[in-house]
Amino acid sequence: MSKKQIRIYINAPITIAFACICILALALDYLTGGRSTVLIFSTYGSSFLDPLAYIRLVCHIFGHANINHLVSNMLYILLLGPILEEKYHDRLLTVIIATALVTGMVHNLLQPNVMLLGASGVVFAFILLASITGKEHGIPITLILVAILWLGQEIYSGVTSSDNISQITHIIGGISGTALGMFFKKK
After folding, report:
1. How far is Cα 110 from Cα 170, in angstroms, rounded to an integer?
2. Are 169 and 107 contacting, i.e. CB atoms less than 8 angstroms apart?
């Protein structure tokens, strides 16, 4: 009787790399007493003469406030990322970077005195990108339903709660994922 070997393989390199960078950023946060997060892995209003301001516009998606924040975002990233990476390949990296830049710039414009960190914008870009993914042309009903439910929840949360969650980042992330998904669909 022959034994079958279990083979572990990398099914989504961009997604796995993203998750690993986020884990390393949180480890650095703990090792530096939060200094690395303030310096690199968050974004906030600062002088554009500071070269790190540009790096923070992208790198804020890797920083997380704590392990719970990281795990909640990584569950979605690791669930949706491989599906999207199979469909969009290297274009998924474009989605991640574009979402980071847009959410960072909008946040810095609207809330320059508040620090933004975390992959929530990317998560919502992935959610709406996944709901738009399909073979047919046009707008899928799943996108409409997800957008209505998700947007309603974000607006409700923004109005009724005073937590440290940036609903505008979620909304901008979702818009980024939808816009890029529609663009990719046309191509």
Report:
1. 14
2. yes
User: Tokens at residue 63, please?
Assistant: 């920083």
Do residues 177 and 103 lie in contact, with contact meaning Cβ atoms separated by under 8 Å?
no
In order, the DSSP letters of 53-94 are: HHHHHHHTTT--SSHHHHHHHHHHHHHHHHHHHHHHTTHHHH
CATH number, position 59: 1.20.1540.10
Residue 144 lies in a domain: yes
Both tokens of 83, joined, read 């599906």
In the structure, what pLDDT confidence band is assigned to residue 181 with cuts at 50, 70 and 90? confident
Q: Is residue 127 part of a domain?
A: yes
Question: pLDDT > 70: what percent of the chain?
Answer: 91
**Coil/strand/helix, residue 7:** coil
Does residue 73 form part of some domain? yes
Which residues lie below 8 Å from residue 116, measured CB to CB, with a gap of 6+? 42, 43, 44, 60, 103, 104, 107, 108, 166, 169
Any domain includes 7: no
Which residue blocks in the chain are alpha helix, DSSP H? 13-31, 35-39, 51-59, 67-88, 91-110, 120-132, 141-160, 167-186
- Of 93, 57, 103, 114, which Cα lies nearest the Cα of 184? 93
What pLDDT is attached to residue 163?
A: 54
Which residue range is the domain that position 102 belongs to?
13-186
Number of domains forming the structure of the chain: 1
